[in-house]
Amino acid sequence: MTEHGLSPERFQALAETYGGDIARWPELCREQARALLAHDPEGLGAILAEASDLDHLLDLAPAGAVNAALLGRLIAAAPQPAGSARRWIAGLGAALGLGVAALAGVTAGVALGRAERPDRAKTEVIAAGFDTPDLYDALEEAGAI
Amino acid sequence: MAAEGSDPDEALLTGVGRGDPAAVRQLLDRRLPRVLALARRMLNDAGEAEDVAQETFLRAWKQARSWRPGGARFDTWLHRVALNLCYDRLRRRRDVTMAQPPEQIDTGPAPDAGLLGADLSRRVETALAALPERQREAIVLCHHQGLGNIEAAALMGVTVEALEGLLGRGRRALRASLADLAQRGR
């Protein structure tokens, strides 16, 4: 230790550990390091310069660039507003409802051994849990019934 | 640079949790390059780094609605998740390496290496990649990511003294392997 609270040896060790920029050293050492540097700018300045050479080289290590595809994927996967989530669930419900109703229709047709037009009321019951009021019309349009 | 004070990402995270697209974009602008750089320098592979960055943010999106202010800073949390994903990949590489030893990496100058540009950058990247993992991690966290010694040590699960040892040994090894470049730069 010196009158500046930091020995030249410790100063050198800090430069070799944290680099040539005192601002990046542990906060508690910075003031003492600057005071010591002011006392011996040439000798300690050379230590900092040597450490800075390595800092500048390290800065050249590639960091990678964010590409548009990655950004797009992350934006698409981010949480959606509550309203849009409800719409998505409703859409999924409609798709599921359509699938379930179609399967029910095929099963019924096979069981009866003939092409029987399903009862509109029954189809509406199947669809009721999936928020798909137009299911019957959609099935009819698709030729499923 | 210690992990103290309010979290600068807190308001944006709240917005992300509500599904605010502007908050999502702003948070990605602010933090994605940092996570990508961390992974790139830890893994020395652009594709793997991108995978790690993507997985890190997908996990962040899952946490966004339940994020509790006052705990770890979001940036620290991101570093923790990204580092763990990097460890997983490095561990898998070690398993492959043990089964199939790779060729020795030459960190020295190539016969016709240029002084500037991509060659120089590649030299530094190769030298960094040749360091033992923990030394590389210490340098990436403190030098490249700009974390304070307390925060970096906590992320690595070591004492500040141990962190300083890793930094010192890592920098000495880099100075030796890049000595020709440092001398040219003066």
Written description of the protein model:
The complex is a heterodimer of chains A (145) and B (186). Chain A contains seven helices and no strands. Chain A has 145 residues and is an all-alpha fold. Chain A has two domains: 51 residues; 61 residues. Chain A is elongated and about 65 Å long. The C terminus of chain A is likely disordered. Chain A starts with 7 loop residues before the first helix and ends with a helix. Chain B is an all-alpha fold and 186 residues long. The longest helix of chain B has 26 residues. Chain B has two domains: 102 residues, RNA polymerase sigma factor, region 2, helix turn helix motif (Rna Polymerase Sigma Factor, Chain: A, Orthogonal Bundle), CATH 1.10.1740; 75 residues, Winged helix-like DNA-binding domain superfamily/Winged helix DNA-binding domain (Arc Repressor Mutant, subunit A, Orthogonal Bundle), CATH 1.10.10.10. In chain B, helix 2 packs parallel to helix 4. The two termini of chain B are 30 Å apart. Chains A and B meet through helix 1, helix 3, helix 4 and helix 5 of A and helix 1, helix 2, helix 3, helix 5 and helix 6 of B.
Counting H and I runs of at least 4 residues, what is the number of helices of chain A? 7
> What is the multimeric organization of the chains shown?
heterodimer
Fraction of residues of chain B in helices? over 70%
Shape of chain A: elongated
Largest sheet of chain B: none
Helix count of chain B equals: 9
Pair of chains with the largest interface and how many residues each contributes? A-B, 37 and 53 residues
Q: So, the CATH homologous superfamily of the largest domain in chain B? A: RNA polymerase sigma factor, region 2, helix turn helix motif
Give Rg of chain B in angstroms: 18 Å
Distance between the termini of chain A: 92 Å
Using only CA atoms, what is the Rg of chain A?
36 Å
In percent terms, what proportion of residues of chain B is strand? under 5%
Helix content of chain A: 55-70%
Instruction: Report the sheet-strand fraction of chain A.
Output: under 5%
**Mean pLDDT, all residues of chain A:** 73
Largest β sheet strand count, sense and barrel closure of chain A: none
Which structural class is indicated by helix and strand composition of chain A? mainly alpha
Q: How many separate domains make up the residues of chain B?
A: 2
Order of helices and strands of chain A: HHHHHHH
SS elements, strand count of chain A: 0
